[in-house]
Specification:
The chain is built from no helices and seven strands. By secondary structure, the chain is mainly β. The protein has one domain. It starts with 10 loop residues before the first strand and ends with a strand.
């Protein structure tokens, strides 16, 4: 979840839910990367922040994660926030 609107150079909170839909445990460590993208598919990503994750996510389990990120000063128009596990 992100604010519906944000301004260039503004810091915004980004919240997402990470779920394990597989049959086995997801064992850390891994990193969640938050990007600003030109469309909902994540094209032309610009890295905004990284959240290191440790621990284990059991099958069927979900967890909410959050990170505050700064919108680059050069942004104008519509952009999308995309979170990817790396």
């Amino acid at each position: 979840m992100v604010p519906a609107q944000g301004l260039a150079s503004q810091t915004i909170p980004v919240t997402w839910t990470e779920s394990n839909n597989g049959d086995g445990s997801a064992v850390g460590p891994w990193t969640d990367a938050v990007y600003l993208a030109s469309d909902a598919e994540g094209d032309n990503p610009q890295l905004l922040g990284l959240l290191p994750v440790s621990g284990t996510l059991a099958p069927g389990q979900s967890v909410t994660r959050a990170l505050s990120v700064a919108i680059p000063p050069t942004v104008a128009g519509n952009e999308w926030i995309v979170v990817r596990r790396t």
